[in-house]
Amino acid sequence: MIVMLLFLATSWVEAHPKFCSYTYSVWNARERRSEGPYRVTKLYTELQTHERGPGGCSVCDEDQVPVRLSNGVTFKVCGAFREAFQSGLEAALSAGEVIESVTGHRPSKSRGHLDGQGRRTEFSNHAYGAALDVNEAQNGLYDFCVTWSPSCQLIKGGRYVPGGPRSFTSRSPLVRALRDRGLRWGGEITGKQKDFMHFSPDGL
Ligand SMILES: [Zn+2]
């Protein structure tokens, strides 16, 4: 009995990695440039609230899993979101969607208020492996874009051409497949930005 309890206790402890390591960058909005990289290695038990994200995910490399799609495209995401992302992408491929590039886990502070030097202070969903950017070259991130029009201002990625090759719309197989799995498309969020490459639990 004691041996059994010891075994169970040991198994539970090992369900969490002992160490957490990650390399992150910080977006300086005032100077419009990325700072870093900064390397972090610490005990997993010492993770702080801002290092933990949705679904039990974290910024740690140790919580990310590699995914290889049937078309050969590879990326890393948090284990808790792998099934939803991978099955959605495969369903879209089967429906004829062309998927050229996918980025998942990417630790950077690109959200939240600015500090005294103009630097963002919060991690994004990508930092936790809880977001995907797909076909960035045809699905840019736009500002001053409450509703889409060609006068929206492109701030990252390539030019968005709805109806054009590899650009997504609300009726695209990928947007529908990921929506069916509880994920939101950054092209459909309210507010002044539209992120047409981006998918996550809240679209941000
Ligand atoms: Zn994104």
Task: Please explain how this structure is put together.
This protein has 204 residues and is α+β, with helices and mostly antiparallel strands. 19% of the residues lie in helices and 30% in strands. The chain is built from three helices and 13 strands, in the order αββββαββββββαβββ. The strands form four sheets. The chain has a four-stranded mixed beta sheet with strand order 2-1-6-7, with no helix packed on it. A four-stranded antiparallel beta sheet has the order 5-8-13-11, covered by helices on one side. Strand 3 (64-68) and strand 4 (74-78) form a beta hairpin. The chain is globular. Mean pLDDT is 93; it is low at 8-14. The site of zinc ion (ZN) has 5 residues, from loops.
Summarize the structure.
The protein has helices at 2-15, 79-94, 173-180; strands at residues 19-28, 33-43, 64-68, 74-78, 102-103, 108-114, 120-123, 132-134, 141-143, 153-156, 184-185, 194-195, 198-200. The protein has 204 residues and is of the alpha+beta class.
Task: Output mean pLDDT.
Answer: 93
Number of helices: 3
Ligands and ions found: zinc ion
Taken in chain order, the helices and strands follow as: HEEEEHEEEEEEHEEE
Class from helix and strand fractions? alpha+beta
**Oligomer type:** single chain
Q: What's the N-to-C terminus distance?
A: 49 Å
pLDDT < 50 runs, ≥5 residues: 8-14
Name the overall outline. Answer: globular
Tell how many strands the DSSP assignment holds.
Answer: 13
Strands in their spatial order, largest beta sheet: 2-1-6-7
Tally of separate domains:
1
Residue fraction in strands = 25-35%
Radius of gyration: 19 Å
Q: Biggest β-sheet, characterized?
A: 4 strands, mixed
